[in-house]
Amino acid sequence: MQSKQYFSLEPARFKLDGGAMFGIIPKPLWSKVHPADDQNRIELALRLILIKDGKKNILIDTGIGDYHGEKWDSRFGVVGSPSPLEHALKSIGLNPEDVTDLIISHLHFDHVGGLGKMVDGVITPVLKNATIHLHKKHYEYSKNPTDRDSGSFQIEYFEPVIKWYEQKNQIHFVDGMEGDIISGIKFKCSMGHTPYLLHAYDEKMIYMADLIPTSNHVHIPWVMGYDISPGVTTSDKKEFLSFIEDKKLTMIFEHDPLYFGSTVKKNEKGDFVCEQKMDFNPAIAYPIFN
User: Fold this and answer.
1) Which pLDDT score is estimated for 1?
2) Which end of the chain has the lower number of beta carbons within 10 A, N or C?
3) Alpha carbons 288 and 248: distance in angstroms, whole number
């Protein structure tokens, strides 16, 4: 029986305000581990996971896309090639048509922007043969978010593509706080960053998305200012880190520019810390768990 193969893809990088990324943590603390530029922005990865499992090619998240325009890209410091998702897939010998399944953690623009591409002014699907796995209640929330987080949901870009998948019967809406997705991959939801943020996991890894976006966010109080309910995030992190430690999983950091993942342990004070950080390889794609 062929074992799974895991690949880390990084179609682009971008920047966000360091203060927003670390919430109430003072800059003299967070800037020691994640330095900012002259606009107070920090560099962030857009890390995806591609799992080859037999005839299935399962992708988690899609990156930011390439259709926002020069002004927008400059504001967010986007660095990447045209057609970034296609380029990343090509680096491991795949075409967009080869992706059989796409798991979407949540519908913020930096996670789902690569779902579509602009063709003659119309947003069209990139992964036309894939079945989309998306949390039903998160999708409902994304269409009517609060004023505080509405800017993170670019519904004008993702909703037409999701409707295309619905019309093709290529969408699987999951529900509840945990359950099965596909091919041995399960999910757990966190609620603090955005309602029903979906974390895919299997026997080896768990995709942290924006619950713990970088290795520096493992510390419980280090919570993003972007989170809709920061206090809930701290509770979510405790629950998830206990789960990760118990299952001996590797956390995959979607936004860490230096480390793609880490195991977790408790230190002498009983606090969760990274146990073994896994260095980022500057190649656009690289195998993990080999």
Assistant:
1) 47
2) N
3) 16
In angstroms, the CA 148 to CA 227 distance is 10
Secondary structure of residue 165 in the 3-state scheme: helix
Q: Kind of pairing, strands 131-135 and 101-103? A: parallel
Q: Please tell me the distance from the alpha carbon of residue 21 to that of residue 223, in angstroms, as a whole number.
A: 7
Q: What is the CATH number assigned to the segment(s) 5-288?
A: 3.60.15.10
- Per the structure block, which two tokens stand in for 19? 């203060």
User: What one-character DSSP code corresponds to residue 249?
Assistant: P
Which has more confidence, 249 or 288?
249
Contact between residue 84 and residue 63 where contact means Cβ atoms under 8 Å apart: yes
Nearest to 236 by CA among 188, 268, 204, 290: 188
As a whole number of angstroms, the distance between CA 283 and CA 285 comes to 5
Cα–Cα distance measured from residue 200 to residue 29, given in angstroms and rounded to the nearest whole number: 31
Q: How far is residue 249's CA from residue 252's CA, in Å, rounded to a whole number?
A: 9
At 120-149, the pLDDT tens digits run: 999 999 999 999 999 999 999 999 999 999
288, two tokens: 């993990």
95 secondary structure, DSSP code: -
The DSSP secondary-structure symbol of 54 reads T
Residues constituting the chain = 290
